[in-house]
Write a structure and sequence with these properties.
Helix content: 55-70%
Largest sheet: 10 strands, antiparallel
Oligomer: single chain
Number of strands: 13
Strand content: 15-25%
Order of helices and strands: HHEHHHHEEEEEEEEEEEE
Structural class: alpha+beta
Radius of gyration: 36 Å
Number of domains: 2
Distance between the termini: 95 Å
Number of helices: 6
């Protein structure tokens, strides 16, 4: 029995030494972030950025040579890049903020886990001291000193529970040690990402500042007529951005629980009409700018009916100052893949449905017109999947 006490003591001491040394190693290792890792990631990030910039240069808005002077074109290209750089900077700053909050939370969790670990370790150490102070006392000594059989059974039960408890504490210590290691590892990774995000943000600030300086220099060299043209293009792009934000806000705010029935949508106006401007890149008829056309334009006459392409609920029906004039949007619900389908109809002469109205496929939602930025009577028709415009031909029937 004495050997059992000695074995228990040795087991407890070994467990404490292993747990303490392992935790100390983890803590020491986590207090230092590998500079090699950070530098390597930073170089990779820089390489990727250069490649991305080359790709983005091909994706910028293009402008019509001949209609616009070289200086105006350069200003608009720089303006596009400034917007892109600002967007990237905002995204990097948002990522940095998220990582800061995540690191703070991890540090709080680590402090709690460490505190719990220390308490359990102290408890185990106190048990070792108690066993040591008892000297040569064995289980048998304690049991033989029992005054009765009931006292004997009670003491035996208590001592067995103590051994069981000690084993449980050792197991809990091991689990808590693993938890601390896991938190520390995640903390190390997040701190490394924070450093990279901070470096990236500073780099984006420099690029943005330099681009703005070049942009300003070009603007100062413009003639009065060029300044007027530049102002018109910038106003157009601002309207487009505001319009896009409005459309996405409206779609995101629609909480109707609808199911898109699927199948083909009907032609949104008279069958005798035809497409005057297809989906995709096109020369804007007003500003001399080549940009993506988010839908299709279907020509006709003022007053021609504009039909709901599918069943749904009207989520927008009012005059839009962003260039679309009288505009209607219909929420058709989620398709089988969980994608929200919405159609948009613009430049109407007269609105015939209100927000909240339930419409059936073929119901007249407005009259064709030429309100907003328009050169003649037509309906601008869009189909959106989760807010993103797609080619309406994917939904319309062949006819």
């Amino acid at each position: 029995m004495k050997n059992k006490i000695v074995s228990t003591v040795i087991l407890l001491i070994v467990a404490i030494l292993i747990l303490s040394s392992s935790l100390h190693f983890v803590m020491a290792e986590d207090n230092t972030i590998s500079n090699d890792t950070v530098n390597t990631l930073s170089l990779n990030e820089q390489k990727e950025q250069v490649e991305q910039e080359l790709e983005k240069a091909e994706e910028q808005l293009t402008y019509v040579q001949g209609e616009l002077s070289d200086a105006v074109i350069q200003i608009q290209k720089l303006d596009d890049r400034i917007q892109e750089y600002q967007k990237q900077l905002d995204e990097v700053n948002a990522t940095y903020q998220e990582l800061q909050e995540k690191v703070k939370k991890s540090e709080e969790e680590l402090a709690i886990a460490q505190s719990e670990y220390d308490k359990k370790m102290k408890l185990l150490q106190d048990r070792l001291v108690a066993i040591y102070k008892n000297g040569d006392t064995t289980y048998l000594d304690v049991l033989l000193n029992s005054k009765s059989i009931i006292d004997f059974v009670s003491k035996y039960f208590v001592m067995e529970k103590i051994v069981e408890y000690d084993s449980k504490v050792i197991k809990q210590l091991e689990e808590k040690k693993q938890e601390v290691e896991k938190i520390n590892k995640q903390l190390e990774e997040d701190k490394a990402k924070m450093k990279l995000a901070k470096v990236e943000a500073e780099k984006q600030k420099v690029v943005l500042t330099n681009t703005k300086t070049v942009h300003e220099n070009y603007k100062n060299s413009l003639s009065e007529s060029e300044k007027q043209i530049t102002a018109e293009i910038e106003n157009y792009k601002k309207q487009q951005e505001e319009l896009e934000n409005l459309i996405r806000y409206t779609i995101d705010g629609s909480t109707y629980e609808l199911k898109y029935s699927g199948g083909v949508m009907i032609w949104p106006t008279l069958e005798s009409s035809y497409i005057t401007s297809p989906y995709g890149s096109r020369l804007h008829p007003i500003q001399g700018v080549i940009k993506n056309h988010d839908g299709i334009d279907i020509g006709g006459n003022t007053g021609d009916p504009v039909y709901a392409a599918a069943d749904g609920i009207v989520i927008y029906s009012t005059f839009n100052t962003g260039g679309y004039g009288n505009m209607v949007m219909i929420d058709h619900g989620l398709n089988t893949e969980g994608i929200k389908i919405v159609t948009l109809y613009a430049h109407g002469n007269k609105l015939l449905k209100n927000v909240g109205d339930t419409v059936k496929q073929g119901d007249i939602v407005m009259e064709m017109g030429s309100t907003g930025n328009s050169t003649g009577p037509h309906v601008h028709f869009e189909v959106r999947e989760n807010g993103t415009h797609v080619d309406p031909k994917n939904y319309l029937s062949a006819s």
